[in-house]
Amino acid sequence: MIRKIHPSEIEETVALWYTASVKAHDFIPAEYWEAHKTEMATVYLPNSETYIFIENNTIGGFISMVDSFLAAIFVAVDQQGKGIGKQLIDFVKQEQSVIELKVYKKNSPSIHFYQKQGFTLVEESLEIGTGEIECLMQWQKPI
Q1: Of 8, 20, 74, 108, which one has the greatest count of Cβ atoms within 10 A?
Q2: Residue 61: enclosing H or E segment and its boundaries?
Q3: What torsion, rounded to 10 degrees, do the Cα atoms 119, 65, 63, 28 define?
Q4: Is 125 exposed, middle or buried (0-12, 13-18, 19+ CB in 10 A)?
Q5: CB 107 within 8 A of CB 91
Q6: Domains of the chain from N-terminus onward
Q7: DSSP state of 20
Q8: pLDDT of 20-49, one tens digit each?
Q9: How far is the CA of 55 from the CAs of 3, 46, 60, 128, in angstroms?
C-alpha cells in the first residue's frame, strides 16, 4: 500500500534513506550521508510531499515530491528489485504531467531504472556538495 507518511514514521524513513543511500552511492563517503540525517528528518521530509510503500507494517520505500520535482525515491536494500520503486513512480505519475529529478551519473543502475520508467536525460551538471556529476532527467505524460 502507498500512503502519505505520518510524522511518527520519519525516523524509520530516514534510516531506510541512509542505508539505501550508502549502498547506491558507494562513490560518496558514508560520512556525507551520516552528516545529512538530521536535515533529512527535520527539513527535507517535512517540507515535501512524501509517500511511503508499506507492507506488513514495514516501510519498504518512499518517494518525496516538491511540486513536480522528484526530490527522493529510495527502496529498502532488502526490498530492491521487487517493483516497489516502479509502484512509487507510477503513483506520482498519476498526479503530474511532468516530473524532473536529479541522479548521480555514477549511479548507473538508477539511471537505467529511470529510463525504463520513461525518463530522458536533459542535462548534466556538477553538484557542489559532493563534487559529482548529476544528471537532470525528465518524464512527460504522453499527450
Answers
A1: 74
A2: strand 58-66
A3: 80
A4: exposed
A5: no
A6: 2-140 (3.40.630.30)
A7: H
A8: 999 999 999 899 999 999 999 999 999 999
A9: 11, 22, 7, 37
Instruction: Please tell me the distance from the alpha carbon of residue 5 to that of residue 135, in angstroms, as a whole number.
Output: 27
Parts of the chain with a pLDDT under 50? none
Contact 9, 50 (CB under 8 A): no
Beta bridge partners of 136: 102, 123
For 26, counting Cβ atoms within 10 Å of its Cβ (0-12 exposed, 13-18 middle, 19+ buried), the class is exposed
Q: How far apart are CA 61 and CA 20, in angstroms?
A: 10
b/e code 58-71 from CB counts within 10 Å (16+ = b): ebbbbbbbeeeebb
For 44, residues 6+ apart whose C-beta sits below 8 A from its C-beta are 64, 71, 72
